[in-house]
Amino acid sequence: MITSRTPVDIVMEAGTDASSCTAFGPGLEAGNKDTHPAVFTIQARDKKGNPIKEGGDPFKVDIQGPTGPIPCEVKDNGDGTYSCKYQPDAAGLHDVAVTLNGTPIKGSTFKVNIKPGAYAGTSIIENFFFTVRAFDKRGQAVPTGGDDIKVNVKGPRGAVESKLDDKNDGTYFCTYKCPDKGDYSVDVLVDGQHLKGSPFTQKLN
Length: 205
Fold this sequence. Notes:
It contains no helices and 17 strands. The radius of gyration is 33 Å and the shape is rod-shaped. The mean pLDDT is 91. The strands form four sheets. Strands 3, 4, 7, 8 and 9 form a five-stranded antiparallel beta sheet that branches. Strands 11, 12, 15, 16 and 17 form a five-stranded antiparallel beta sheet that branches. 0% of the residues lie in helices and 44% in strands. It is mainly β.
């Protein structure tokens, strides 16, 4: 019995090649701050560098920050891309290693310098200021400086240093710091007497 065999064409789809895969996005670039999540994208590619159009590759992201390992969320988008997000916990150099089955992707390990960002929980209103305008007995603006103007500021821990700048045009610019939360009492004196609106209280929460 003779059996005929028909040639069969088998199409071999290109597989993902770790050394050709790429990663890109702001989370791998300069300018990231430790107060915001950093994000980037992995693009799966074959040996020829062509993008893979489906998901399922077990990419792994290991991040080492100044204080130790940083967890990274990797989401398979199902189209050959993988969204990655991590939250730095300190400023400084972060090593971002991206691997596929133990093999680094192209460009890995990435060196990312994270900058310190402003944090509402520790930031303060440091300087306050106001302007004193001198008027004579008739309510006319005094055009020159040199009058006896003094400012006294008291905070939760006692006297607070203030600076008074005579502009020599009848105005006096005062600045002072409020380093602690609480009430601040401000006295503004002309020849030892309180001017209108003095004293006043400022509350820093």
